[in-house]
């Protein structure tokens, strides 16, 4: 998406240039914060700290849950990690809870200090497509006459910067809100993919998914395997697994893989899923157990004529057919799983995911 809806009265072309040649995520989140405050709350004159609350809320999930890198020139990621660690904010906080907390603490000295880098340049850099000069004071001054029909004007009162939207832009922002948000996210996704080249599914790691896809097909599969196996044990605890008394664990956390492929799902003790949470398993301790349990499950499914065998197509993405998988000896099996899981685990560790040992 590299174009925006046209307007007979507004200069849309400068808006399309906002995200060109940017070295940080600030402009993306600044724009989305302004859009949300206006369209969702009807605010047209905004305190810069309220915009920064929205920026932090929108960037929270990609940073704290998915651990995406924002690049070396970006301090927003470091600020969010600092807020999370210092104030013990849960990584999976709901956006409304997080927004309420930030609004209640936005005047705290420590919180302001953490976010203090944002007001210095972001409000001015964003205006460069309309007012192309480097001097921030001059940008503020010229914005007050809404030069070139720019998006907003900047004023300063009691050491606080205020953003007041250009009334000519209000109908356009409201009518095209969804398109404008998608435009910002599309550009942000491209920006982050360059900085996270080995991370899968960047586009789906930019917003908090309130409910994930149900694992009904996968659970039915494992129920069948358990029913037709003499004994199936949890790879983490060695306790017997019983139908109706287990959790399906994403071996590599869902927050990294963002998929429900069968080879990354394993039945586990209910207590393990909460203990392991968003952390990585120790591959030296658990990878062979995962591989042998998966091999056994595929063998049961094929030999016992499981009705939904099309689910086994998931294993093809490991680089082998289900039949080839069950015919592998121990070393070949371990190598097959290691080729996929070792790089994923290392990339996830580099992103900040922690190792878990039961």
How would you describe this protein?
By secondary structure, this protein is mostly helical. The chain has two domains: 12-205, no CATH class; 216-356, no CATH class. It is 51% helix and 8% strand. It is built from 16 helices and seven strands. The chain has helices at 12-16, 26-41, 48-65, 76-86, 95-105, 109-115, 118-125, 136-143, 170-175, 177-195, 216-227, 254-257, 270-276, 283-303, 322-327, 330-351; strands at residues 45-47, 152-157, 160-165, 247-250, 265-268, 280-281, 355-356. The strands form three sheets. Strands 1-3-2 form a three-stranded antiparallel sheet. Helix 14 (283-303) packs across helix 16 (330-351). The protein is elongated and about 80 Å long. The mean pLDDT is 90.
SSE diagram, text form:
Elements: H1 12-16, H2 26-41, E1 45-47, H3 48-65, H4 76-86, H5 95-105, H6 109-115, H7 118-125, H8 136-143, E2 152-157, E3 160-165, H9 170-175, H10 177-195, H11 216-227, E4 247-250, H12 254-257, E5 265-268, H13 270-276, E6 280-281, H14 283-303, H15 322-327, H16 330-351, E7 355-356
Parallel strand pairs: 6-7
Antiparallel strand pairs: 1-3, 2-3, 4-5
Helix pairs in contact: 2-3, 2-10, 3-4, 3-5, 11-14, 14-16
Task: Please sum up the structure shown.
This protein is mainly α and about 350 residues long. It has 16 helices and seven strands. It has two domains: about 10-205, no CATH class; about 215-355, no CATH class.
